Amino acid sequence: MRVLFVHPSALMYSRLFLRLEPLGLERVAAAARTAGHEVRIVDLQVFSHDELWRQIAEFRPEAVGFGLNYLANVPEALELARDIKRRLPPCFVFAGGHSVSFIARHVLEQADGALDAVLRGEGEIGAPALLDALPDHGWSDVPGLVGLEGDGPPPAMLESIDEPRPARDLTRRRNKYFIGVLDPAASAEFTRGCPWDCSFCSAWTFYGRRYRRMSPSAAADEIAGIAEPGVFLVDDVAFIRPEHGDAIAAELERRRVHKEYYLETRADVLLRHPEVFERWRRLGLNYMFLGMEALDEEGLDLFRKRVSPDENIRALETARRMGLTVAINLIVDPRWDARQFELVRQWALSVPEIVHLTVMTPYPGTEIWHTESRKLTTRDYRLFDIQHAVLPTRLPLAEFYRELVRTQSVIARKHLGVAAVAQTLGILTRQLLRGQTNFARMIWKFDKVYNAEQQLRDHAEPVHFELPLPRHHEINPRARAELYVHPAHG
Ligand code: B12
Ligand code: SF4
To answer: Which of 14, 23, 69 should be mutated for ligand 1, with most atoms under 8 A from CB?
Structure first.
């Protein structure tokens, strides 16, 4: 069967700081190809809609699968699905991915016939099963299927994440994938899931709180097979198990594989086993993302981060000592007033790290979705990109955005401004000589992407598709069980 997988367009954040390959979609595409299907991928982060229509006309797919990891992409995917059905009526159109898994039935109903099914959970098992079932519509056995005529059994999980290897050969214009100065950059995954349970996050609920590791030799094969010099590790928390990080490092050392790495971890993990990160530093680890989330105890308790402000500060010192460039994420509470924004600006300017701000946003699949969603000021999917405020702000909304954008701009100028360009001039020159312009463009694009008036105007756009509301508004054991996509473990 001819199958086309589609990743929707880049969201606000990805238009500036990073744009990464659709790793999940590449893995699902690989599984479908192994099952004997003819598979293509269109990534709308790096292609315009014209390329999609060209593929629809030329390749004439019998099935199209949209990757919906992000809520903010739901309206675009539904509109494209409708157009595909118009141009190619017999084509089977479905969606899968992180966010859509939590609200599958709702999205299917909203699609009003434009989608034939949503596949919940990991796609490596479900997607080939669905494609195999398609000719005679024997869907009722497809794990994770939510269909127009009923549901299949619960989503099935891979025992081992060693296989399938992502079908990187199917993504084109790979030189458009980058993260900051890692330009170009590929992505790779060593582990899946997270054993913590932060209240604002759905990484643990999606995987039923399970945590799986790739075997060290498969992980090293994966890295060795990547053509790009830079690698972003998509693991939610890198090297939770120090022996796993060490074993992969040993394999890479033995094979003399050297890349430049960017990874994400937690302060307590770094502090417990700095030696693993030191070892990776020698292998090319240069950039680390630390999800600090809040500067004070109260904020950290609110998000159930189980890390103290002191641990966060010590982790920063440890990373600095190792010579790592660190990016920090802070969650903006919509209740912040002008004074709190000012404090954050001062703090951000006083530390050498790159500081990112994301606005606290309740998502389906998180605990705060149940406790906060009654207060939502909008249910427009497009605003759920953690750069817009969807909860009531203490400041008038226009002023909130002015403070937010001003803070982001002050911080961005610290890194993207003339001084930073001078510091990174060597990197920039080398990239431009190789024809890599993503990082250079990012430096000059900030004001186009971040604009308080535009963010305010986004709230006035006509809304065609809205998020559903949760059935429970508190976290009792039943509501907690319902958070999971893959059945909970332990
Ligand atoms: C890596 C990552 C990114 C990368 C994106 C890379 C890319 N282009 O896809 C970067 C760093 C760019 C990123 C950015 C953002 N991210 Co992000 N990201 C992740 C992260 C940590 C891992 C995703 C990943 O690659 N996993 C590994 C692959 C193999 O798994 P996967 O993609 O989930 O795919 C599997 C299934 O979902 C499914 N599947 C996927 N696609 C499809 C398609 C079909 C047809 C089918 C059947 C199945 C299927 O099968 C796959 C294999 O099992 C997740 C957290 C998590 N653990 O999932 C957050 C996460 C997905 N991100 C999140 C957010 C909020 C964002 C941002 C909005 C943040 C921001 N600061 O603005 C941006 C917006 C990105 C954008 N599109 O523009 C949220 C999602 C929230 C939501 N409900 O919408 C998550 C869940 C993190 C969280 N803390 O809650 N992100
Ligand atoms: S925020 Fe990080 S540590 Fe907390 S549950 Fe999500 S992935 Fe795990």
So the answer is: 69
